[in-house]
Structure formats: C-alpha cells, structure tokens
C-alpha cells in the first residue's frame, strides 16, 4: 500500500510480494537503479562546473555525436549493474551490441535483462534543460545458466516486468511501474533519499497539450498534419497549447501530470521516426498504459509490436487516451 513520504527503499520492500516472481532479485535491481540515478544526478547537477558539458568525440550506433554526459551516465549504470550481478544482460542506446553479464561464478544464473537510454534529451544537456534516463526490464526467455542471446532483448513490450524513468529537472524524480500502477519518488538532495511524492500517477483521459517538433511539420504524413491543424484550430471549446521540451522523458512526464499527447511521427526525413522501440518507446508506453493512457505507432499498440533489432526506431504517439485515439482517427482517415 503506497503511503505518502514513504521512502523508495521502504516502498520496494513493502510491495515486493505484489510481484509474481518475487525473489528479491527485482527489488535489488530497482535499488541498483536508484543508486546509479543518484550518481548521474550528482554529475548532471554540477555539469557546468566541471568539464562534462559538450561532445565526447565519438559517434554512437545511431549516428549521433555522443555527449560527455551520455558516456558518463552509460558507464555509471553499467558499472552499478555489473558490480551487483543482478542482470544477465544489458542493452543500451550508447552500445552497439548488448552486454553479457556473468554472474558470481560465471554461471549466468541471473533472470533479468535491462534495456536503457542512459541519458535522454542529450540535445538539452548543454543548455540546462531537464534530461532523463529510461529503463525497461524483462525476464530472460532463454534458459538461465547459459549466456543471454539477442532473443532475450527482442521481446514485445507487453512482456516487460518493470519500466521507469529518472528525470533530472527542477527536482530529481524516479517514476516506475512493475505492472501495479505508476508511482513517482522525489529525491531529497540534502539526505540523498527518494520519497514517495506522486502515488498512483494517472494520465488524465483528455488534455489540451500537444507536444511535437513542429519544425518537421512539412515532412509529416497528412494524418499528422490534419491532427496538428485540429489542435490549432478546431479543438472545440478548449484552446490547445503547444509544449515541446525536446526531452522525451520531460515531455511525457509533464503530459502525464497535466494531460496531453506527445508525438514523434515518421516523416520524409525519418521513415520510421526517431525514437527507439526497446529503450524509449516500450518503457514509456508501459508506464503510460499503467497510468491509464495510450501509446501506439499511429495504428498498433507499441507494447504489441514484435521487435526485430536492438536499435530499431518506430513512430510514437503517446499520452492521454482520448487524444491518442483522436490522432489515430486522423491517421486512419488519411490512409
Ligand atoms: O530534436 P528532435 O528531433 O525534436 O528530437 C527530440 C527527441 O530526441 C530525443 O532527444 C532522443 O533521445 P536521446 O537524447 O536519448 O538520443 C528525445 O529525448 C526527444 O524527444
Ligand atoms: Mg532518448
Ligand atoms: Mg539517450
């Protein structure tokens, strides 16, 4: 039972029994994420003071110039997870291939794989706008005791056992679900403890915020153009507002609290959109559905898509249920 101001540590222990396979392993994994989040938060907060702004000098498999904080966050999460030997594999936006993690006696006994976007919203790092970390957790499908394979990562989002994000913003929050609702915890920086500040988060069914990079408008499919026009002109008696931070985590977090829709459609610039299915869309879709919202590629629920590659991209429509349904209507009508 969620109690306001409960610490994250208490919440994890008190809710462990809710979890079908509860053996404490998932709790230890969430605890490790909590620790890595604090390490990254410390770096993000002092980014301007020490030489960790700007580019790291390498390009990742996405063809993006890695920011120094992309690399720092990636290393912090990988090190924390490896040292605690609680996952058997890690997939990351910043690593070309998945990482196999041996257990204590090189026995590959661990049950979980994690996929992550260690630093989301990289284009906002240098300009002091909120950024995040996104994670998605699955039980492996290959037999324990053998090294993980790509199969363990290419699972439909519906198989996720947990997912969440950390937002490094005006305050630092960790928001996650294990399939029993969504809860948000705020870090008290003075004592380094996360407290339950947002119990049982819910997406309003309807909202008035639309979040899309309108700079790409001319390249969008007709259905998306029609929906944006609807938001701008014909939204009946409620004025819509355009809000776009350019950090997926921050745009969806705001929309979950206020009601809204986030869209990163396909376009003539990006045939499959920009966002990555496994460590951006699936975890945010799981959280959104657990909070009563909806997430699709414009036609199919994100969580029902069968992944084919570690870094594949998909179009993404996510947010308040009625708003996503409206956007899907416009997409269907423009076919
Ligand atoms: O600048 P654009 O094309 O609008 O893209 C912004 C989107 O790209 C992202 O920055 C991609 O994530 P990364 O920063 O992790 O690569 C999202 O957070 C954001 O919503
Ligand atoms: Mg990202
Ligand atoms: Mg990233």
TrEMBL record:
Q: What class of enzyme is it?
A: hydrolase
CDD domains attached to this UniProt entry: FBPase
Localisation: Cytoplasm
Q: Give TM regions.
A: none
Please tell me where substrate binds in this chain: 120-123, 213, 244, 274
Fructose-1-6-bisphosphatase class I N-terminal domain span: 7-199
This protein's gene is called fbp
**Reactions listed under catalytic activity:** beta-D-fructose 1,6-bisphosphate + H2O = beta-D-fructose 6-phosphate + phosphate
* Keyword Hydrolase found: yes
Instruction: Reply yes or no: does the keyword Metal-binding apply.
Output: yes
One protein family per Pfam: FBPase
Q: Which species is this record about?
A: Dokdonia ponticola
Mind telling me what this protein is named?
Fructose-1,6-bisphosphatase class 1
Pathway listed: Carbohydrate biosynthesis; Calvin cycle
Q: How does it assemble?
A: Homotetramer.
Enzyme Commission number(s)? 3.1.3.11
Q: What would you give as a GO molecular function for this chain, any one?
A: fructose 1,6-bisphosphate 1-phosphatase activity
Q: Kindly state which keywords UniProt assigns to this record, in alphabetical order.
A: Carbohydrate metabolism, Cytoplasm, Hydrolase, Magnesium, Metal-binding
The cofactor binding remark recorded in the entry reads: Binds 2 magnesium ions per subunit.
- Residues bound to Mg(2+) 2 are 117, 120, 280
- The entry's Mg(2+) 1-binding residues are 93, 117, 119
**What family is reported?**
Belongs to the FBPase class 1 family.
Essential cofactor(s)? Mg(2+)
Residue span, Fructose-1-6-bisphosphatase class 1 C-terminal domain: 204-331
